[in-house]
Amino acid sequence: MSSPEFCIADNNHNVEHPAEETVPPVLGQRSTRQRKLIYDILKSSNDHLSVEDLYRRARDIDSRVSLSTVYRTISLLKEASLVDELIFEDDRRCYEFKRGNGYQHHHIRCLSCGNIIEFQTDYARRLRDKVAEEMGFSVESLKIDVAGYCEACATR
Ligand SMILES: [Zn+2]
Ligand SMILES: [Zn+2]
């Protein structure tokens, strides 16, 4: 995979966050500390976190966090387009905080260890252009998801 068409996405691409953080209004007027905690975990992570991952991390910090709070917070953040939901073929779902600057990326997932690697390619843009040009279709979304076995798992 040394083709220049691909590049492994830089996970440290995060935009600088302003020093003082305010709770986004989407979390509700009387936004609870627990919702804010889940928001912070998602925002500060470069990872793709499942509900269980989030729940576990939140509980490590505040044992009062409930699973329903995790679900509720995710759904609020999704509605506000602050968080992206990735849905894989086996219906496993992961969440990642949207990064700024229109950062577009795709995912490769290992079916054995579950590792998720981000990558960037201009195939997506070219396909979008092609569909627009040849079919007069205005593309709103396009997904490229790759599943398989990572090098370590494939050689095991
Ligand atoms: Zn693997
Ligand atoms: Zn990602």
What does this structure look like?
There is one protein chain. The chain is of the alpha+beta class and 156 residues long. It folds into 2 domains: 20-100, Winged helix-like DNA-binding domain superfamily/Winged helix DNA-binding domain (Arc Repressor Mutant, subunit A, Orthogonal Bundle); 104-156, Dna Ligase, domain 1 (2-Layer Sandwich). The protein is built from 5 helices and 6 strands; from the N terminus they run E-H-H-H-E-E-E-E-H-E-H. The protein has a 4-stranded mixed β-sheet with strand order 1-5-4-6. It has a two-stranded antiparallel sheet with strand order 2-3. Strand 2 (83-87) and strand 3 (93-97) form a beta hairpin. The mean pLDDT is 85. The structure holds zinc ion (2 copies). One zinc ion binds next to loops. One zinc ion (ZN) binds at residues 110, 112-113, 115, 149-150, 152-153.
Please describe the structure with a list of short key phrases separated by commas or semicolons.
binds zinc ion; Arc Repressor Mutant, subunit A; alpha+beta; four-stranded mixed sheet; 6 strands; 34% helix; 5 helices; 156 residues; two-stranded antiparallel sheet; globular; single chain; 18% strand; Dna Ligase, domain 1
CATH class of the largest domain: Mainly Alpha
The CATH superfamily of the largest domain appears as Winged helix-like DNA-binding domain superfamily/Winged helix DNA-binding domain
Strand content: 15-25%
Largest sheet report: 4 strands, mixed
Give me the CATH fold name of the largest domain: Arc Repressor Mutant, subunit A
Extract low-pLDDT stretches: none
What percent of residues adopt helix (DSSP H or I)?
25-40%
Count of discrete alpha- or pi-helical segments spanning 4 or more residues? 5
Q: Which architecture name of the largest domain does CATH use?
A: Orthogonal Bundle
Average pLDDT level: 85
Distance between the termini: 20 Å
Instruction: Count every beta strand, where a strand is a DSSP E run of 2 or more residues.
Output: 6
Bound molecules: zinc ion
* Structural class label: alpha+beta
- Listing every helix as H and every strand as E from the N terminus to the C terminus, the arrangement reads EHHHEEEEHEH
Number of domains: 2
Q: Order of strands in the sheet with the most strands?
A: 1-5-4-6
Integer-rounded radius of gyration: 18 Å
